[in-house]
Amino acid sequence: MTDDRDVTAQLNARGDVAVVVPAAGAGVRLGPGAPKALRLLEGEPLLVHAIRRTAAAPSVRMIVVAAPPAEVEAVHDLLAPVAPVIVVAGGAERQDSVAAALAVVPDDVGIVLVHDAARCLAPAELFERVAAAVRDGADAVIPALPVVDTIKEVAADGTVLGTVDRSVLRAVQTPQGFRAGTLRAAHAAAADSHTDDAGAVEKLGRPVLCVPGSDFALKITRPIDLALATHLLKLSEPA
Ligand SMILES: Nc1ccn([C@@H]2O[C@H](COP(=O)(O)OP(=O)(O)OP(=O)(O)O)[C@@H](O)[C@H]2O)c(=O)n1
Ligand SMILES: C[C@](O)(CO)[C@H](O)COP(=O)(O)O
């Protein structure tokens, strides 16, 4: 296996960004099969699509993937022809996987992006937009889209309690970008589970900034998302 220190030097020495890619999830909502990041979209694993786009972002100096523990070697071999990456074993929860990958990011990398393998069609330009906002001074940056449906608050028995003002709501994506020290502090302080890394930063009381998200950054969660992604892939720029 290649020495990881050589691998980090190969991607883009001028880049100032490390991207941490949690890819260790089972994909329970997708139904029975391989771990989600290894399932195929038009003949290639989701993780390959994701890493190809991540590596195409000029700011990215290094990529760390958190793989299912049993698949670390296989993921390393799978990604070797795509881009130089470090592969670590992920954990039981998404935040454990992010923490494991963050632990190997060197201290001299100032900006860290966290990107779900499941958002495998997020374009390189989205990485650049998020990284630029961190470079411009934000501590934490998230790509987000307006909510398009009417949103109701509903009781456990199905009774509608009210209609929420959707103009103040956003659907949040990845890659999410952080000053490296902010992300490390948020993870160190996180006592409860959080579904996204910005949530941990919010709990520190630090501001989080939204930038426009991308329809291509949809998260593959259910089988219908794979069908949607198959069509989006045909519309997306080759990475
Ligand atoms: N223990 C975990 C759980 C999730 N993830 C990653 O976090 C991202 C977002 O998670 P999600 O889409 O919810 O994936 P799963 O947890 O695999 O989905 P499910 O809840 O349906 O099992 C995915 O790239 C997934 O691989 C991870 O690295 N480690
Ligand atoms: C990080 C995330 O993709 C932002 O939308 C999302 O929170 C992951 O949540 P999930 O419940 O693990 O799918």
The first-level CATH class name = Alpha Beta
- Give the beta-strand count: 12
Please give the alpha-carbon distance between the first and last residues: 26 Å
What number is the mean pLDDT?
94
Topology as H/E string? Answer: HEEEHEHEHEHEEEEEHHEH
| Largest β sheet strand count, sense and barrel closure | 8 strands, mixed
What ligand species are in this complex? cytidine-5'-triphosphate, ligand LQXTBERG
Using the alpha-carbon principal axes, give the shape. Answer: globular
Q: What structural category do the secondary elements indicate? A: alpha/beta
Pathway: Isoprenoid biosynthesis; isopentenyl diphosphate biosynthesis via DXP pathway; isopentenyl diphosphate from 1-deoxy-D-xylulose 5-phosphate: step 2/6
InterPro entries: IspD, IspD/TarI, IspD/TarI_cytidylyltransf_bact, ISPD_synthase_CS, Nucleotide-diphossugar_trans
Site (Transition state stabilizer): 29, 36
Family: Belongs to the IspD/TarI cytidylyltransferase family. IspD subfamily.
